[in-house]
Amino acid sequence: MNPIRNKNIILGVTGSIAAYKAADLASKLAQTGAKVECILTAAATKFIHPITFQSVTGQRAYTESDLWGTDAHVLHIGLAQKANLLVIAPASANTLAKLAHGIADNLLTVTALALRSGETPTPLLLAPAMDAGMYAHPATQENIRILEQRESFFIGPEEGHLASGLVAKGRMSEPGTILDKIRFILSRGQSLQGKHFIVTAGGTQEDIDPVRYITNRSSGKQGYALAQAALDVGADVTLISGPTHLTPPTGVKFVAIRSAVEIEQAVLSACRSADALLMAAAVADFRPANPSNQKIKKEKEAPYLELERTSDILTSINSYRQQTGFPKIVAGFAAETQDLLKNAQIKLKTKGLDLIIANDVSATDAGFGVDNNRVTLLWADGKKEEMPLSSKFEIAEIIIEKLAEILKISASN
After folding, report:
1. Residue 218: C-alpha distances to residues 165, 284, 291, 366, 370 (Å)
2. Domain membership flag for residue 333
3. Please, what is the average pLDDT of the chain?
4. From the CA atom positions of the chain, what is the Rg in Å?
5. Pair 259, 405 in one domain
6. Pick from 111, 115, 254, 347: CA 20 to 30 A from residue 239's CA?
7. Residues pairing with 268 in the sheet
């Protein structure tokens, strides 16, 4: 489950032209299932009206006048006590300075002060937005350093077109990027906290010459979904990926590879203390035996291409595991076009896997290049579980949930 769902999030909005982006962020958070209450500073209301936030969240949007209302002596305490996260986006230079030095002269800053005073402080995420000179000023940089020392989270600012007309660093991060950061922050401390998952994804590229290579149809979507699902329940995730058009989930340790040799080296290096390895990458079985250093010129007859086998990574992992005990769990994928379960069972036994996920990649509605999959889980103990056509993320969530149960059982034995 997305860790944002059912969480209480306070969205603070300060005086910046980027305040219009905050309305989009509030809407995205509400659509994800969070309860979002907004606090606008007096300066923020000069740029955007509180009704905008109430309309997209269905919740109260507070302003300075609420600080002096009938609930003034408890409002900020009540907001702080129930919050799972305070996000200030945009965060102006003025507000950063107040937060760094404990100045609580408006509803937002007094709520932030109450938020950070408990035994287990609720996290604070800041998305700065200001002109380049203001951001680069030593005072602002010192304030950021102070807040980082207090374990506040920052995202951005980005380089881009600013309200002053300059193109420089100071632009607030986009709402989608901030949403991904929020998702990662709220995932920490979940059931897989302290566990290390390695996920491989995408296809490999085996060079023929400097401009041509052999590859396959893997999009990387299932592997990236597995990485996100593991993050969502608190795991530390290393994502080892071949070339794709996908953006790595926020919070992963990302390792980019191209070839079968590179992915084997990366996996073996990461496995030294791994709790689980999920080999979702489609690694080439063959590569050109003698790749050319120069582009092969077009001739009347096509050149002969001799292939050789790549090394078997799962066999190498099985050998490493027998020596070290890591990874504790190894799951592989069997992408087949015929004799699906028979071929998957053979791979499960010969590679020493705990689990193999078998999928028919000849199907037009599932497998390579699409958002859905239809798989069968085959376990080393003989158990078989068929999963109907579902989104790749739904399948990833179920797989991670089942692996989490195994790790929990292993830890208690």
Report:
1. 43, 11, 23, 12, 10
2. yes
3. 91
4. 25
5. yes
6. 347
7. none
Looking at residue 165, its pLDDT comes to 80
In a shared domain, residues 178 and 220: no
Residue 212 maps to a domain = yes
Could you give the CA distance from residue 153 to residue 41 in angstroms, rounded to a whole number?
A: 21
Mean pLDDT of 314-332: 91
- Return the beta strands (E) in 103-215 as ranges: 124-128, 153-154, 158-161, 167-171, 196-201, 206-209, 212-214
Which CATH number is 200's domain given?
Answer: 3.40.50.10300
Per-residue pLDDT band for 412 (boundaries 50, 70, 90) equals low
Active-site residues: which are they?
216
Report the alpha-carbon distance of residue 224 to residue 278 in Å, rounded. Answer: 11
pLDDT interval class at 410 (50, 70, 90): low
Whether the CB-CB separation of 112 and 12 falls below 8 Å is answered with yes
Q: Is the pLDDT of residue 72 over 60?
A: no
Share of the chain above pLDDT 70, in %: 96
Write the pLDDT tens digit of every residue in 240-269: 999 999 999 999 999 999 999 999 999 999
- CA separation (Å) from 395 to 158, 187, 199, 296, 362? 34, 19, 15, 43, 18
The residue range of the domain holding 344 is 196-412
- H or E stretch at 62: strand 61-62
Pairing type for strands 372-379 and 384-391 reads antiparallel
From 187, 212, 243, give the residue that closes a domain: 187
Total Cβ atoms within 10 A of residue 294: 8
Predicted TM-score (pTM) of this structure = 0.91
Block residue for tokens 């907001």? 79
H or E element at residue 344: helix 340-350
Amino acid code (one letter) for 18: A
Backbone angles phi, psi at 98, to 5 degrees: -65, -45
Across the strands, what pairs with 236? 196
